[in-house]
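Writing this down once: the sequence line spells out the residues, with the fold written below as integer tokens. I am pasting one below:
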Amino acid sequence: MAALQELRARIGALERKSREAFPWSYLPEGLPRGGLVEIAGAGKTEAVARLLAENALPSAWVEAEFSVFPSALLQRQVKLEEVFFIEAGKEAAWAAAAALRSRLFPLLVYGAPYGEERELRRFQLLAEKSHATMILLGERPTLSWPISLSLEMQEGRPQVRRKK
């Protein structure tokens, strides 16, 4: 009987962990943990800055070519000491995978080209394993199947395009 209760407790802890979300004023239910979230359109960087300001957690920001201005993030109350910036060039996908594997960053922002199903599936598995959320910044929503939540910025607010 004790073994059954222990098993139920473990299952309950896993279920609670899977329902965790990062609070975000743009989405009442928050941003889901342990998967890929796509934010596309004009204003995506501003939306991510707001998320980082509302969740002062260790985060990685990976780009092929550095385009975000840390001083602009600072003006939006983002704690820069919590953000690890990586300019990785052609190795952006490798750098993002390494950051996920490290399990040091509950949030990872990826501002490099993506879209290949195989690469997205690899990111999805790594994000799930590390219980991290990888935010993909794009121009248009791709609606690819490994992405658990796809948002498109319209009039300064994210609109849900697809949710698993």
